[in-house]
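Try this one yourself first.
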């Protein structure tokens, strides 16, 4: 038995790692707890790694994290993953600019390529079209839009048509 495993057994003496693993909802955390439980039963690190479909290095790292910080040390730390290209401080301004851009656009709608170009010009941020859709979804925008408005449409012509429409219908009914 290695020194690390002996420390693990000592640290987990008052815990039921098997029960904790069964109750855990996060699959990554469950795997880590199962690995530690298997180590406490006398299984060697290599066999534990094979059983949990991980590497011996991961098992050693989890053991060290558990000894240093307890069960909480096994949880994923915040801040993992890639940083957002559009800074959090710019998000509110981007949403306001996007709404303004939508109002000013000809046809009454904008497409992802417009947003992509806008991000590059105003915020110096490059995004793929897929990333633009993810960004729009995060802010509550939908890529599904209603039928666009023709840039040369006239509200006066529409109102004029609507006002005389009932007269036209009445004439047709008389015939």
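Now uncover the answer:
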């Amino acid at each position: 038995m290695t020194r690390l495993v002996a420390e693990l057994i000592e640290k987990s003496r008052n815990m039921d790692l098997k029960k904790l693993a069964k109750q855990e909802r996060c699959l990554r955390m469950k795997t880590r707890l199962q690995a530690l439980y298997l180590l406490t039963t006398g299984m060697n690190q290599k066999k534990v790694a094979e059983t949990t479909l991980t590497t011996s290095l991961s098992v050693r790292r989890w053991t060290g994290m558990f000894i240093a910080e307890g069960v909480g040390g096994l949880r994923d730390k915040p801040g993992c993953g890639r940083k957002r290209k559009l800074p959090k401080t710019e998000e509110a301004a981007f949403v306001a600019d996007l709404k303004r851009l939508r109002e000013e656009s000809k046809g009454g709608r904008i497409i992802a390529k417009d947003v992509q170009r806008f991000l590059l010009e105003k915020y110096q941020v490059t995004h793929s079209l897929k990333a633009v859709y993810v960004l729009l979804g995060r802010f509550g925008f939908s890529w599904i839009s209603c039928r666009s408005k023709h840039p040369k449409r006239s509200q006066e012509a529409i109102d004029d048509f609507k006002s005389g429409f009932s007269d036209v219908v009445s004439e047709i009914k008389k015939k």
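Discussion: The mean pLDDT is 86. The radius of gyration is 31 Å.
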